[in-house]
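sry for the spam today, last one i promise. struct tokens for design, 92 residues
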């Protein structure tokens, strides 16, 4: 069970990181509404914080993955992703 917990925690962190690089604010705002609330996950957030917030509970985690995929489709259709000074050529 511990391995599944850690995998989910890692996935929540990864989805949050990727969504923060969506190059369309309206798509990103939908992540804040339906995904991870702004400020919930920062560099100071521990694994137990993520567990205690309920993000890895079965239904919540499933909803979070669905929300992430919808945001990725939105990013693909609009502004793509950016990181530093690089923006994807797909989107927008």
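last one done:
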């Amino acid at each position: 069970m511990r391995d599944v917990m850690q995998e989910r925690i890692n996935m929540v962190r990864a989805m949050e990181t990727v969504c923060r690089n969506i190059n369309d604010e309206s798509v990103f705002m939908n992540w804040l509404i339906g995904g991870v609330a702004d400020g919930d996950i920062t560099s100071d957030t521990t694994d137990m914080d993520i567990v205690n917030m309920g993000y890895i509970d079965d239904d919540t985690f499933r909803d979070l993955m669905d929300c992430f995929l919808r945001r990725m489709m939105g990013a693909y259709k609009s502004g793509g992703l950016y990181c530093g000074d690089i923006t994807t050529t797909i989107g927008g």
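The chain has one domain: 2-87. ok im logging off now
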